[in-house]
Amino acid sequence: MSGNDARDRRAERNLASRREIVSAAWAAARAEGLAGLSMRDLGSRVGMRAQSIYVYYPSKHAIYDAMFSEANQEILDRISAVPVSGDPVELLRRYTHVYLRFCNEDAVRYQLLYQRNILGFEPSAESYALASSGLEMIRRCLRACGVTSSRAFDVWTAMISGLAAQQMANEPGGKRWLRLADELTDMYIARYAPAHSKEKK
Amino acid sequence: MSGNDARDRRAERNLASRREIVSAAWAAARAEGLAGLSMRDLGSRVGMRAQSIYVYYPSKHAIYDAMFSEANQEILDRISAVPVSGDPVELLRRYTHVYLRFCNEDAVRYQLLYQRNILGFEPSAESYALASSGLEMIRRCLRACGVTSSRAFDVWTAMISGLAAQQMANEPGGKRWLRLADELTDMYIARYAPAHSKEKK
DNA sequence: GTCTATATTTGGATAGAC
DNA sequence: GTCTATCCAAATATAGAC
Known about the structure:
Two copies of one chain form a homodimer. Chain A has eight helices and no strands.
């Protein structure tokens, strides 16, 4: 029926516009800074007046939230796409590599996801759930390596997020710290999962 | 001479006002967020009109810079005050404790010093020098522990800044990650300075 | 769904009287 | 050194015509 077709087309176009807005928001944030995102600039990037954006998103915070959610979905997808075969320690290395590469690719995305400091912005509960489920995959992998205590898990997240933090703060896009990932992993495994360590005791 | 006295009193009052302004700026940043610091709010906190602040600081960035510099001086002072006696590994632990406590005390200060993300603000060269000289003390201490490679030094800073980053991001003011410092240090020393390790090989 | 027009607020910064 | 007055620019958001 043509009524349904028209409705579908409308919904399709609406969705496309929403996507275009978020995509332009990323570009704007990369150019002007995350906090410098403005509706006027964003509008001009999608060929609209700023006011028209409110048809698609009710507020600027809603756009931040869409960006936050999209980025969380992206890292979750990438982690999920890692083939789960063979040695769990090898899997841990692959996860780590994927995560660090993800952080290092985009400073603005890193800031939005991991340095909560946009004025009054708090991400929605669903976005949090995405982030947690990524963490859960890491936790399972560590368990497969023989690491079970939550202390040891916190040690792991501290080490890896520390690599990312130093890299982003001091040399964004570089690899001075990122290349230390395997070294840190070896040290960690030798201490917390000696059965999987390549180093003989 | 009374001319000099008057000049001194003026200089003194001027300095006191400058200090009061920076102190109020910290309070404002803690209340409104670092990026939310505004001259009007700051003025009202020191009992002035916003415009009068320009007598003491030529711009808002200059105030950020004063805050940045003050904070760097503070951590440098604290690190310098640590008594340098006995085992270098013990000294390393003390340094680490001082640093982590410093980070955890004040989220806004942490953000200003270690998460460079204020709009167009870039700290002055002198402030950078302060920060570098604190890092240099850590480097010397690690050398005394027998750690010499720059790779190993980067591993150390990644680990410790990772503890701080996780603590600040997930549980500011708490100690879920901070309490892992000694555990991380043990692991690190065992790997990079086995001669100083308590664990027998 | 996009526009014009506008309300409303807020920001940093300057000029000049006192 | 502080004030009043003001400039100027920019922001988010709403109302209503088309």
